[in-house]
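Service request form, structural biology core

Requester: graduate student, group of Dr. S.
Request type: structure prediction, single chain
Budget code: on file
Notes: please return the result as structure tokens.

Sequence provided:
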Amino acid sequence: MARVRDLWFKTVQDPDGKTKREPTRRHGKGMRWLAVWNDPEGRELTKAFAKKSAAETHGSLMEADKSRGNYIDPNGGKRLLSSIVEGPEGWLASLEADPSTRQIYEGYWRVHIKPRFGHREIGSIKPSEIRAWLKQLGNRLAASTAGRVLAFLEQLLDSAVADELISKNPCASKTVMKPKSPKRKIEPWPTERVLAVIDELPERYAIMAILGAGCGLRQGEIFGLAVDDVDFDKGVVHVRQQLKMIRAKLLFGLPKHDRERTIPLPSYVAEAVKEYLSRFPAREITLPWEELDGEPKTFKLILTSRESKALNRNYINEYVWKPALERVGVISGDRPKIPGRRNQENRKHGMHALRHYFASVLLDAGESIKALADYLGHQDPGYTLRTYTHLMPGSEGRTRSAIDEAFSREDPKTGTEPEQPS
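Core staff response, request fulfilled:
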């Protein structure tokens, strides 16, 4: 039960066994009355008040909150944000995610959140401060990235709410507006551009564009594709692993969402791969699996560098892919860059554009969204639909034909079959 302690007087017993009250060393200094209670874990907590009635009320409220299951540690809000994020028991250490995802969160924390809020008591962070911080982020980051950074901060403070350190999350305030990314419709490359880029790529690397456009593989999946993953007899490609980069080091891991999948292998792509392997034999590459210190695994990769090493995406993107796009005229090499922000115009022309081309060709041919989602490795066909719905063949022509056909069979005035000429 909660109780109240007088900090200015103490009860002592004289040699005769009588008790009396004497002033303490704190007499007349600071607040007099101390509310004392036990939290749900049995730890004794205290808070000082000037008036006895206020201390009694506070103790009663703490007991009532415990009984209702609404208890919040009144001192929990004094913890620094960094104390719940860092350290062996912090949020980052307990995060169950693949290394690449952890690296992203660590970057959000180190670069964007910690400098502004890491030293702050979590109970002192106000929605107005978050709004001002978001405005600054918007000057340096794309809206989509700023939104993900905000979402991460919201997760951190949600954990503080769940641990009953604070009662509400300031990020969840209605006054904190989530950054909105401008909606851009994907504009798939025409076939002529895809073929032109393939022609401009060095012979050693042209096959990566054929695999991307012909099978819809992600860049890491292309770089991690092994000879054993391509079944020429059955005409399929098994996507079983990808090549990842963590802290500038390479490793193998499962495909995105930890989902293996099988994709049809078009004959054009199959012949291109066979011809490529006749000139550039596959090489065995050994790298850690999933973690930088993970168990080594060896795959005979189709694509390797001139030094017979696994491909580094940073090198390929900067010195192989972009120069080919510049020569074709897709991007300009002298486009001014915004400090601290990747060039958004050039970004849409990364190797991911080949997946969009693959999707557009399949949809134009009448392939279903469900099948396309499976081939692309999307978890949710709804995401595939939202991304590519504008590329699906229009229904206007089918509507006109259906109505014309219906009216040609039935007289619209009488609802009967029209008379046939004798």
